[in-house]
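ok trying this again, last paste got cut off
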Amino acid sequence: MERYLKHQEIIDRSTKINQSYELDTQFFDDVVDDLLNSELETEDVILNGFNRLLSEVDHEIGRIEQFADMTASCFKGCAFCCYFPIIISKMEAKMMIRSIENFSEERKQEIYKHWEQYYENHKDKLEQAFAMDHTADSTKLEYKKLNLPCPMLNPETQACMAYEVRPIPCRTYLNYSDPQVCAENHLPKEPFSYEFLYDFYFGAINEIVQALYENGEDLFIDYPSDVWSYDYLPAWIEKWREGNWNEV
């Protein structure tokens, strides 16, 4: 029978990580150097950097888990995290949507069709969500209570429709205890957050875009304004669908 970590054990291992684990930023730096020295087209440099740096966050979490002897109890189809407010920059939103635009035609159209139903079916909840201050500490719980799914969540399979380009918050919130704690609580105390990795990922992707911008390259990102504009993921997708990117 599988044994899950108790809350105190998670706290103890978190302490061990904070005190003893040394994060090697070279992994992120290597992605930046490799792409900026490549012969790829500008858009490919950005999207490759976006994908590779997201993957690097996953790899870093794996290294931390190995160091602390932790194995996540999360499983495909759980979707507990898919009801949290996902807040990302406009730059990240543009990278994510541009990546989706490069999916196969069948996969891309499936997502677009889903969005049509999503924004119609959840109109009232979305209005309530968008009225919430995403910088307020109380918002996370209030948003979660709305029971509003992420626009990337497939309602039939309970799986992410753009898993490989899912944002950092979706990657860095993991449960190492009994999965039941997620089913029974809006904000369980047991899950572990690696949100500190966001700074390393975001610093690296910003370095890539800044270098291209300073080199006079033609970008699909409005730099630097897109870097500092944040909103809920469903709000960004809605703006893109309505052609209102520039109204932010």
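PB: full thing came through this time. The longest strand covers residues 87-89.
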